[in-house]
Design brief:
Elements (H helix, E strand, L loop, with lengths): L2 E11 L8 E17 L3 E8 L13 H13 L5 E9 L8 H16 L6 H15 L9 H6 L2 E6 L4 E5 L6 E7 L5 H6 L7 H20 L2 H7 L6 H4 L6 H10 L4 E4 L6 E5 L2 H17 L4 E7 L6 E2 L1
Parallel strand pairs: 3-4
Antiparallel strand pairs: 1-2, 1-11, 2-4, 2-5, 5-6, 7-9, 7-10, 8-9
Helix pairs in contact: 1-2, 1-3, 2-3, 6-7, 9-10
Length: 310
């Protein structure tokens, strides 16, 4: 095979009570990587579009390039040559897993060109290596795993890649609103307090357990009670103009829950039908519009496929 195109979807991470361990994939925005064989060994970033010149073209400084190289090294295929074109189709610093999507698309493309020697699950460590580059050295799988595998994932342990798909009720819709304001992931993480009270820990873990049980049983009331973040959201809400007003607008429409996607500024909501999801998106966007802030709205079912060859 001489060439392949791979699409990796955007993701919502944390999902209220699952800070750094829970995430799900959405339909719509994402990144594409087109990879072709070449006689020159190694991976070469030949073109990047949609990044406004912000992303590095050096292979080992690029999330997709690094992820692909780690896979080649693992397979003992460093003599193989691959040209890689990256097509950014989602915003940077949006809380939608942009760097993770690039890493995922890159490693899936390389694996496909080599005849798919590894399964999607086996690609997780290599995709995470690319995301690790973007996050400054720490491993976070709550964007990488759902972008790669699809659905909602729970990473029990980052270091051992102990990741699991969460069973979901049918017909679960997500609304994601991206306001055009900047929230830097590094700064959003640095502002978090290292101290958490026992009361907060109990409430947060109870909500996480309740959410997973509610999703598996289709218990809407339990999901609604559990989609609450008592630790991270209160610390980060001030980074997003009018966050609580946006959240209230979504809840008034009947969503199951609403909070910050990743480190923001995107805000997500979950609903049990498309009409509520659409109405919530309009109401959330209207809050930002009143503040003079442009925004994008994405409404979709949970993406169960993850990265796909297209």
């Amino acid at each position: 095979m001489s060439g392949v195109k791979v699409f990796a979807p955007a993701t919502v991470s944390n999902v209220c009570c699952g800070f750094d361990i829970l995430g799900y994939a959405i339909h719509g925005p994402g990144d594409e990587v087109v990879a072709t064989r070449t006689d020159k060994p190694g991976i070469h970033i030949t073109k990047i579009t949609g990044d406004k010149g912000k992303l590095p073209r050096e292979t080992m400084k690029n999330t997709a390039g690094l992820a692909g190289m780690r896979l080649l090294e693992h397979l003992g295929k460093t003599d193989v040559g691959i040209n890689m074109e990256i097509r950014k189709k989602m915003p940077f610093g949006s809380g939608m897993g942009s760097s993770a999507a690039s890493a995922v698309a890159g490693v899936v493309a390389v694996n496909h060109l080599l005849g798919n020697p590894l399964t999607k699950w086996e690609l997780l460590p290599f995709a995470s290596a690319g995301e690790q580059l973007a996050s400054g050295g720490s491993i976070h799988l709550d964007n990488v795993a759902p972008s790669l595998l699809g659905g909602m994932t729970l990473n029990r342990d980052n270091d051992t890649f102990d990741v699991h798909r969460v069973y979901l009720m049918n017909g679960l819709y997500t609304t994601l609103v991206y306001p055009h304001v900047e929230v830097l992931t590094v700064e959003a993480r640095e502002m978090l307090s290292p101290q958490t009270s026992l009361k907060q820990m109990i409430a947060q873990t109870a909500n996480l357990g309740g959410l997973i049980i509610g999703l598996s049983k289709g218990d809407l009331a339990l999901i609604r009670r559990s989609l609450k973040d008592v630790i991270i959201e209160p610390q980060r809400a001030g980074l997003i103009p009018g966050f609580y007003e946006v959240q209230a607008a979504a809840m008034d429409c009947g969503v199951l829950g609403c909070s910050i996607s990743g480190s923001g500024p995107s805000i997500f909501a979950l609903s049990d039908n498309s009409l509520i999801a659409e109405q919530a998106g309009e109401a959330m966007q209207a809050v930002f519009t009143r503040q003079g802030i442009e925004s994008n709205v994405y409404v979709s079912l949970i993406n169960q496929d993850g990265a796909v060859v297209c």
